[in-house]
Specification:
mainly alpha, Helix Hairpins, 2 domains, two-stranded antiparallel ribbon, about 65% helix, about 5% strand, flat
Length: about 290
């Protein structure tokens, strides 16, 4: 029994318990079906909004699309009300990230007199609901939370580099780059290797600065990508639960990264031939030399 299912048993009302499992428990079969339905509805709203931007559709078709979006907005409003009613802690849900997103997917339609403007805003906010339904996005956001300090350091480093190089390139290429702000814009475009081609250095010094920025940008973003990839891998492989705080983490830690308590982890396996104890990372048994599964 999952944690969510365990807590949902405390709901005495069978209808509320059923709705709680459908709306909050993504580990149950019912919750997964509601999850797929939510993804389908959100994707349909995006498709409808894209169709509504076409110039060659008739006014009647556009009216049907707007009516469908109003109906879907009403459905999201009902979903939010149901979530508040059946949540184990309604206030905590309403103040949570997902609760605020659920609220914003329909509230602007009531607050704005211009329905067209509200619907356009809802189209953008509604995409954020996919975060609730897609596990991969959960993992990515969790990895960003664990690497927020590194991301801030990288962001500050990039700002410093583009500010310095923007002033330098302006001094070297004053005829092409009118001011340091345009130089900073060119530096950012060059660091990301986007290369719009609207500004091209012609002097030797400018080309040297561009080369340095390209190599620096590739290095910085590669390091950042590697750090996030490692964090995602650690989150996916969270198989051990801390004996103290019960938070899950990867077996590569000898201590809990949340509370700091040292953990006793089984890092050994037995050879399939001689039954000798070998390290999990070893492919061969040091006693008999037989290859073992890593």
């Amino acid at each position: 029994m999952s944690e969510k299912q365990h807590y949902s048993t405390y709901i005495e009302n069978p209808i509320k318990r059923y709705l709680n499992a459908a709306l909050f428990d993504l580990d149950s079969r019912l919750g997964r079906k509601v999850n797929l339905l939510g993804i389908f509805v959100i994707v349909m709203t995006v498709v409808l909004s894209m169709i509504g931007t076409l110039d060659n559709i008739s006014s009647s078709t556009r009216s049907y699309i707007e009516l469908a979006e109003l109906i879907i907005t009403g459905a999201f409003a009902i979903e939010y009300i149901l979530r508040v009613v059946v949540a184990r802690r309604p206030v905590a849900y309403m103040l949570s990230f997902y609760g605020l997103i659920d609220l914003l997917t329909w509230l602007p339609l009531l607050l704005m007199g211009n329905a067209t403007l509200a619907i356009r805003l809802l189209r953008v906010i509604r995409l954020l609901k996919l975060i609730r339904y897609l596990k991969a996005l959960h993992l990515f956001l969790s990895s960003l939370q664990d690497t927020i300090e590194i991301i801030l350091v990288v962001a500050v480093t990039i700002l410093i580099v583009i500010a310095i190089s923007g002033n330098i390139i302006h001094a070297i290429e004053p005829d092409i780059i009118d001011n340091a702000f345009i130089g900073s814009w060119w530096s950012l475009v060059t660091m990301t290797t986007v290369g719009y081609g609207d500004i091209v250095p012609v002097t030797t010094g400018g080309k040297i600065i561009a080369s340095i920025l390209m190599v620096t940008g590739i290095t910085i973003f590669a390091m950042l990508t590697g750090v996030i990839s490692v964090k995602v891998s650690q989150i996916v492989n969270r198989t051990h639960a801390c004996n103290n705080c019960m938070n899950k983490f990867s077996d590569e830690y000898g201590y809990c990264p949340y509370c700091g308590i040292e953990q006793e982890l089984n890092r050994h396996q037995h050879c399939r031939e001689c039954n000798a104890e070998i390290n999990l990372n070893d492919n061969f048994c040091s006693r008999c030399g037989i290859k073992n599964a890593s």
